[in-house]
Amino acid sequence: MSKISVIGAGFVGATIANDLMIQGLASEIVLVDINKQKAFGEALDIYQGAPFCSPAIVRPGEYSDVENSDIVIITCGVARKPGMSRLDLAQVNVGILKDVSANVTPYAPNAIYIIVSNPVDVLTYVFHKISGIPEKQIIGSGTILDTSRLQSELARRFCISPKNVHAHIYGEHGDSAFVPWSLVTIANNNIDTFLAGSPDADRIEWNNDYDEIEDFVKKSGGTVIANKGATYFAVAMSVCHICKCIFNDAGTALSVSTLMHGEYGVEDVCLSTLTIVDRDGIRGKILNPLTEEEIAKLQKSANNLKAVINQVEF
What we know:
Elements: E1 3-7, H1 11-23, E2 28-32, H2 36-47, E3 57-60, E4 71-74, H3 86-104, E5 112-115, H4 120-131, E6 138-140, H5 144-158, E7 165-166, E8 185-186, E9 189-190, H6 194-197, H7 210-228, H8 233-248, E10 252-261, E11 267-278, E12 281-285, H9 292-309
Parallel strand pairs: 1-2, 1-4, 2-3, 4-5, 5-6
Antiparallel strand pairs: 7-8, 8-9, 10-11, 11-12
Helix pairs in contact: 1-2, 1-8, 3-4, 4-9, 5-7
């Protein structure tokens, strides 16, 4: 029996709850939102599909209903509006997070918390500082979605399953994110040598397009928003994958946002590197060897985040 509570019943939160139901990841799913009518409607809509899924209860709830949750997923917050600076967005959503933390953590001190709201790295850091929850129980969704976008695009170009693409996005979930290309492999081959040995060489679309790929990944969210108004399907799938890895307990390497303690010369900030996630939450980081240029990019990303954090009141 597993219980997952989702704080925020907007596009992202409701889609996460629906995917949790479809994938059979929880026997009880609680949706909490300041708009109680919205939470009720979303929960009812999802639950009425129960006959087609694994048995589960899906219901709206108050903060107190998160009690005994195995996982609490925080998705609440405002979206960035035209003319709103990154700092303005951070300050508004920090205020919302402070309220949520004060109301939720007393009921679920042993839960693993997944922070999804943006700016996710800033909010993950703030949650560390204000919640009193042990560090290993706090996971920011970080660049897991960016990584999925990267892997899916490389898979398309290399005519191979995404499961054979080992490539990740490091740094912030934002403009300074980057690909450590020195670590990228396609079916156990370095990305630049795979082409020569592939049976699909005549179909592969690759000409050392590093900058083009990174630009594609960074602009993907904006492209989706420009065409449909919001992003929520892929992010929901990525968050459900985190939940699956937690319950699986085998230990899975994920590009999620965690607190840094001097790794690669970066400390006292949350950003994404490869991290092992299991039933207890964060097991630890994988210290892959990065090039000097990649370490510099990671440090730059950290400094960008610290510039925002230093101006946020919490």
